[in-house]
Target: Torsin-1A-like isoform X1
Amino acid sequence: MSKIRSIRAGCSKLRTRQFLTKIEQFSTQRRKSILMWNPDFCKNNECCNDQWLIEDLSGLEKELNEKVFGQHLANKLVSEAVKSHIKNKDPKSPLVMSFHGRTGTAKTFVSQIVANSLFKKRIKSKFYQFKVATIHFKNNNNLKECKDELIKHIQYNSEQCYRMLFVFDEFDFMPVGLSDVMTPFLDYHAAVDGRDYRKNIFIFLSNVAGEVINDYIVRHYESNRPRESIVSKDLEKYIAITDLNSKGRFDDSKIINTKLINVYVPFLPLERKHVKQCAEAEIKKKNYSFKKSTLEAIANELDYFPDAIPWFYATGCKSVVNLVDQLPSD
Ligand SMILES: Nc1ncnc2c1ncn2[C@@H]1O[C@H](COP(=O)(O)OP(=O)(O)O)[C@@H](O)[C@H]1O
Ligand SMILES: [Mg+2]
Model:
């Protein structure tokens, strides 16, 4: 199916997946009987057990700090929240995090690093479910159908493993009212329809509050304070207020209004030095040789803000990746 067609398909694309997952479910049931005959089954097939799930997350913060530049708040908040959730044998609710920031600041990248840290199969794990609102939940005309699909998506996957990582990108573009059906799965319920959802992790990615974060950091820099002295408490307050007041899809979201988000994670705009770090990492990934002047040239290609003192790069590291792609490979 072409990309355009699959995008247009909206919720029906998800239905096809669910048809396929139904077959998978059937084979899951069969798997139990296969297991009786073949105890080696889980050696070669991903199962929800300690052979495939990673319990020791002691390296997560280090990995985030090594790979994600300029995001001291996000790296700390995410690694602490995920580690303590996984360590807790009896969490009272799932871990629900909301990532905020302008495009290209590493929201998707950080959720992938979290997936890599939780599952041996890393982002290929079937216990990592990444959905993009504008692709998978686009069908505004049939909200009821979309709601059913979303409920099934969460229920079916949670049956596969008690520890699922659900990531919803472009969460602010969910059709109005759709995300409300998620609230029972995010709340402090011991069980919903006999199933316990509390070991799951949900991450919502959005650009909402990007401007608020940018304004905040500009004021912080204007008063000559270092980036690392920004503390999450202050920013969290601003983001939560923006969420509540934002005109658009977050409007009236039950998830926001009933305070089901445990951690608001701000992604800060990046400085020139971070952009160069991103470029260097990307060049190394491709095994290209590079000179310092290449990094300078890439950084010079980009637009910075505010106009008065151009501290921050306007569109994050995403276009850096594209610029590196255009470099000659020798
Ligand atoms: N802060 C950062 N540190 C290192 N790499 C980054 C950073 N931000 C973005 N990148 C790079 O840019 C790519 C695109 O970023 P992405 O996570 O998709 O941005 P977002 O989801 O915030 O729009 C990432 O895969 C990563 O390679
Ligand atoms: Mg993204």
